[in-house]
Amino acid sequence: MNALAASVRDSNVVAWRNLMNIKRNPDLLLAGTAQPIMFVLMFAYVFGGSLGGGAYREFLIAGIFVQTVAFNSAFTVIGLANDLQKGMMDRFRSLPMSRVAVLLGRTTSDLLVSVLTVVIMSLCGLIVGWRIRGDLLDAALAFGLLLLFSFAMSWVGAFIGLVARSVEVAQSAGLLWMFPVTFVSSAFVPAESMPGPLRVFAEWNPITVYSDALRELFGNPVRVTGPPPDSWPAQHAVLYSVASALVILAVFIPLAVARYRRVASR
């Protein structure tokens, strides 16, 4: 128990240090909020008229939420890569602190950043016409699922950041794979509109399922036009979204911890 308490304490210290870095470099947070706001305005007002108008804007916001927290994993990627490049890992290794604190502190601080960005995106959504039409308990569950996904994606980012050899490589590696995964999904358009293999990938893509789960819980349209999707992930969106996040955590926490031990032992 003492070891667990020490790990939590050390992780909180590291998380506070990471948040102070963002305070001193607010442009990092600006970059994480400007892009999703741009996507909301572009899709809502440039493409939204031809895609369904007000109904499309309500359909869109859940996808923007999921995209935003997924892209926030870049904070973890770049933060860990920067610490590696500047020798901070050597400093951490020399201190009498828990080995897991560096990773847990980083993912915790980035989870708090995601909380702030979700608040900002919620306000932006309200401005363009998005509303929570379900009950408050379902809405709270939706935001909880969103933060669970954010935490899971941070551990993916932690592994990538520890594998990358420099901050420049980390910036590319942390975002390059996110674009196809995000856009081949129902975050912005229904998966049913995609051809063959892309449709199958989109239907099972966690981005799609999280977007559908949020729409269901918020009481927003699951599809702007046409019948509701009939795939298994769409029919069990909440269950599948929880399961996918837990699988991501089960895979990437051990990978990130093993990689950190390898890096810290050099």
Task: Please tell me about this protein's structure.
- The structure is a single chain.
- This protein is mainly α and 266 residues long.
- It is built from 13 helices and no strands.
- Helix 6 crosses helix 7 and helix 11 (206-218) packs across helix 13 (237-264).
- The longest helix is centred in the middle third of the chain and has 28 residues, at 101-128.
- The radius of gyration is 19 Å and the shape is elongated.
The tally of beta strands, per DSSP, is 0
Proportion in helices: over 70%
Largest sheet: none
Radius of gyration, CA atoms, in whole angstroms: 19 Å
Indicate the low-confidence ranges by residue numbers: none
Q: What key attributes describe this structure?
A:
266 residues, mainly alpha, 13 helices
What is the element layout, followed by pairings?
Blueprint lengths: L1 H23 L2 H25 L2 H18 L1 H13 L2 H7 L6 H28 L7 H28 L3 H10 L1 H6 L12 H9 L1 H13 L13 H4 L1 H28 L2
Helix pairs in contact: 1-6, 2-3, 2-6, 3-6, 3-7, 3-11, 4-6, 4-7, 4-8, 6-7, 7-8, 7-11, 7-13, 11-13
